[in-house]
């Protein structure tokens, strides 16, 4: 039966003109990925496959169908459709931490949650977060002075990661976890341990399923579960406390206007918006809220860490663009290094925005996006079998010379007002696109502008250390670190 199904499905791919490497009986294309390849070579391997077989690729792993695409019209067909919102099976391994929060849910649940969560990222809410971005990036800069001697090689990834964790905890849960000042705080440790273990699970076939991981890596599995429990307990406690506080406050006072004990305005966290939300007249339960808060904690820190580190790295290696970005910052924010930035300042940093966009093109924190076809579906005029696992190779689409001339070149002017309209939104989709795009996109852009501008106000970025070797490890990291040097900026 399986054999017949495979034959029928193979025919469907052939009729659609989608080709791929020759399949071995039973194993399909699995040997290609297992022999001589590793997580580190995945981006190069997929590039070679595209060069050989085309931008639409059929890859079969054992009995599972895979369809990989780096073709913008096909990416558009997949991302624009409401029918293709179910995630690829690979995302399942995040479920033990994130439950079926927004990133992983599907069908009606996803639709309802997306509707409730969208207002959470309203302009008025984001505006209050600018202060958090500013304060936490100031701590990052302050701590880096000790290493800013113009000689020391600094791997920005772990540094930016702690700042990003502080930011996302304070904005999503309303708590200061002081990751930068006390990196040993148990919750911080657990987020780091679990994020790293998830990245490893993603790449290791025997760790991918709970039962195989429990069987072959029992100690690792136990460690993973213990750390997840610690994080869940922490989030539960915060939710209970915030619910209690919210119930105590005057019903007519908008939370954003409240004052705390010391008379300063109390900031509204993303969690507070969720606590006040109702679905069909009923509030969300603590369990419902926890999966969303955990999803923010995950989606909202590793991604921005990767983006901030790569942007600083690129600026360190492109002095001309660095000088231009700094000049703009000086014109908008002025010469007082201690002045806090405002939402308005960030809006005026137009060139910096182009720099960040270009960095997200070359080094997208989410280099691939996955989907799963639950039924036979026609996409861009081609018919695909049910149960196909789809991978959108956005990393490669964003380096396609047909869409981006001189694709390897760092050129922020691609996004200048004159050029911007010629960018194809499905060839360039670092935040995904369509109904299931990144809900935190504006939040992320403000955070990145805030941290990168803070770094440029304090330091000259120098091209020190080994060049990056991008690797897809849940998000885009680099096997060699994301290195640079720093020198205090005098002006
Ligand atoms: C540079 C930073 C970021 C990048 C590049 C990024 C990228 C993405 C991408 C590509 C997706 C689609 C994933 C998919 O379809 O499988 C996504 C979804 C999502 N992102 Fe982001 N993200 C960033 C920052 C953030 C932040 C800061 C938050 C929260 C505060 C966030 C929350 C989410 C959520 C909740 C989803 C799921 C949306 C849904 O399925 O409806 N992201 N992000």
TrEMBL record:
Keyword entries, A-Z: Heme, Iron, Metal-binding, Monooxygenase, Oxidoreductase, Signal
Family stated for the protein in its record: Belongs to the cytochrome P450 family.
Record has Ion transport as a keyword: no
Record-linked PANTHER family: CYTOCHROME P450 4AE1-RELATED, CYTOCHROME P450 FAMILY 4
Presence of keyword Oxidoreductase: yes
MF terms (GO), sorted A to Z: heme binding; iron ion binding; monooxygenase activity; oxidoreductase activity, acting on paired donors, with incorporation or reduction of molecular oxygen
Pfam families: p450
Gene3D superfamilies referenced in this protein's UniProt entry, alphabetically: Cytochrome P450
PROSITE patterns for the chain: CYTOCHROME_P450
Domain of life per record: Eukaryota
Classification via InterPro entries: Cyt_P450 (IPR001128), Cyt_P450_CS (IPR017972), Cyt_P450_E_grp-I (IPR002401), Cyt_P450_sf (IPR036396), Cytochrome_P450_Monoox (IPR050196)
Protein name (record): Cytochrome P450 4d14
Organism of this sequence: Drosophila rubida
């Amino acid at each position: 039966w399986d054999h017949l199904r495979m034959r029928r499905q193979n025919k469907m791919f052939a009729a659609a003109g989608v080709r791929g490497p020759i399949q071995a009986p039973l194993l399909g294309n699995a040997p290609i990925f297992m022999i001589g390849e590793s997580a580190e070579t995945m981006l190069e391997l997929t590039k070679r496959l595209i060069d050989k077989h085309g931008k639409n690729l059929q890859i079969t792993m054992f009995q599972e169908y895979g369809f990989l695409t780096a073709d913008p019209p096909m990416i558009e067909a997949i991302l624009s459709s409401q029918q293709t919102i179910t995630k690829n099976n690979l995302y399942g391994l995040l479920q033990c931490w994130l439950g079926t929060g927004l990133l992983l849910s599907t069908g009606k649940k996803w639709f309802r949650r997306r509707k409730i969560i969208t207002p959470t990222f309203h302009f008025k809410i984001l505006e209050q977060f600018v202060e958090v971005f500013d304060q936490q990036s100031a701590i990052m800069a302050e701590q880096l002075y000790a290493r800013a001697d113009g000689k020391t090689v600094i791997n920005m990834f772990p540094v930016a990661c702690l700042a990003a964790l502080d930011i996302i905890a304070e904005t999503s849960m309303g708590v200061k976890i002081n990751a930068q000042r006390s990196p040993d705080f148990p919750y911080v440790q657990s987020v780091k341990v679990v994020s790293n273990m998830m990245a490893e699970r993603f790449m290791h076939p025997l760790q991918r399923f709970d039962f195989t991981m429990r069987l072959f890596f029992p100690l690792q599995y136990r460690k993973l579960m213990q750390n997840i429990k610690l994080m869940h307990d922490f989030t539960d406690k915060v939710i209970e406390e915030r619910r209690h506080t919210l119930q105590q406050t005057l019903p007519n006072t908008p939370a954003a206007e409240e004052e705390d004990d010391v008379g300063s305005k109390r900031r509204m966290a993303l969690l507070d918006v969720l606590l006040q939300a109702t679905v069909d007249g009923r509030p969300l339960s603590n369990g419902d809220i926890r999966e969303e808060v955990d999803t923010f904690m995950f989606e909202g820190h590793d991604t921005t860490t990767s983006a901030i580190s790569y942007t600083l790295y690129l600026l360190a290696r492109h002095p001309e663009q660095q000088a231009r970005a700094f000049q703009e910052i000086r014109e908008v924010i002025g010469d007082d290094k201690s002045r806090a930035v405002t939402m308005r300042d960030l809006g005026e940093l137009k060139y910096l925005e182009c720099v960040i966009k270009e960095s997200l093109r070359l080094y997208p924190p989410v280099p691939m996006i996955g989907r799963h076809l639950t039924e036979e579906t026609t996409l861009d005029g081609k018919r695909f079998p049910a149960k196909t696992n789809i991978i959108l190779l956005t990393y490669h689409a964003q380096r396609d010379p047909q869409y981006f001339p001189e694709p390897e070149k760092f050129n922020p002017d691609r996004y200048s007002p004159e050029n911007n309209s010629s960018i194809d939104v499905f060839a360039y989709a670092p935040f995904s696109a369509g109904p299931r795009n990144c809900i935190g996109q504006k939040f992320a852009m403000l955070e990145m502008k805030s941290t990168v501008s803070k770094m440029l106000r304090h330091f000259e970025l120098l091209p020190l250390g080994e060049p990056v070797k991008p690797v897809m490890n849940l998000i885009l990291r680099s096997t060699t670190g994301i290195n640079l040097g720093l020198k205090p900026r005098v002006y």
